[in-house]
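User: Here's a chain of 138 residues. Predict its fold as C-alpha cells.
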Amino acid sequence: MTNFYAAFPNDPMSAIEAFRAAMVAGDAKGLADAHVEGDVAIVDKAAPFIWKGPTAVADWMLSMTLYFEERDIREGSIVYHSPITKLVDGDQAYAVVPAVWSYKLKGIPIRHAATITFALRRTPSGWKIAGWSWNQGD
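Assistant: Prediction complete.
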C-alpha cells in the first residue's frame, strides 16, 4: 500500500497509512498524531507487550527502540497490503491489515509476515487510531 489513502481523509485507512509512514520515518510526532489523544492501547511483541493510556505511544516507542538496539535490528520498513477486514460503524472503525516487516538483524536481511489489527475513532481532525496490535505469524 502506498500513500493512496492519504488522499482520502474520510477513510479510516488514512490514519493507518499515516501511522505506517511515521513509523518507517522514525517520526515520533507523526506517530503520536496518528493516534487519539488520551486513552490508547498497543499490543506488540516486545516487553512489556502492552502499553495503555495517554503515554502509550511514547512508551511503546521507547520500548521498541531498546528492543531494536539490544538485537541490532536496523533498516526497518513495513509494507501494507489490502485490508482483510474493514468495518465502519458511525465514528468507530476496525481494520485488519496484512503487513510485511523487513529489516536487517545483525546485517542479515529478515522478513516477517503479520497482520495489524486497528481500532479507530473519527475525531474533529479526522480518523485516529485508538488501539492496535501486531500479530506476527512467523
